[in-house]
Amino acid sequence: MMENKKADIMIISPHPDDSEFGAAGSVARWVKEGKTVVYVICTGGEKGTGDYTVKPEHLAKTRKKEQQAAADLLGVKEVKFLGYEDQTLEDTPEFRKEIVRWIRTFKPDRLVTADPYRRYIWHRDHRVTGQVVLDAAFPYARDHLSYPDFFEEGLMPHKVKEILFWASEDPNYYSDVTETFELKLAALRCHESQVGGHHFESVEQWLRQRAEDAAREQEFELAEAFHLVDIPW
User: Whole-model pTM?
Assistant: First the structure.
């Protein structure tokens, strides 16, 4: 029987580093507030490079280490690596069931993931992950007849209260990251294979501008923007 755990918030990321780009400032703040946060990383990110000399299996190992280091820096309680191949995620019953498994294991009140409804240019793994997470949360994780075989593992139904989607074109929720923005940047620096060297300067400028824009009508200086969906029943 699988051990049942409990987390307040679950971040479900298509690739290593997506959660840092999308929500690391909020993750750092939630941890400081005493909330328990866990990560679920769907793929190994082994195709995320322009370096022709790097082998995918080596890059996957590197990115796993980078993601763990970033999560440790932010105070994330646990990281689950699902190990799907980069650029191959599909909306399948198997993938959906895997996400339900971890929702029922950690029983989070809040899920955070990529917005599946971002238009036009959007990584397919992001689009698919967001849709699968949404479906897994409602109704599959909630309904006891969805996966009765989970009962044998002690994974009982769980109702998620809300989902936050990062990179949304329709944000309606703004998280204050004024005090944790530098920690967000530090966590991103852990992803050396993705943002290493002089490239990080432009990444930092872009993220800071985006955070300032998100907070423009708020009472704080820097924000991460999400689309919040409440699950009413």
Answer: 0.96
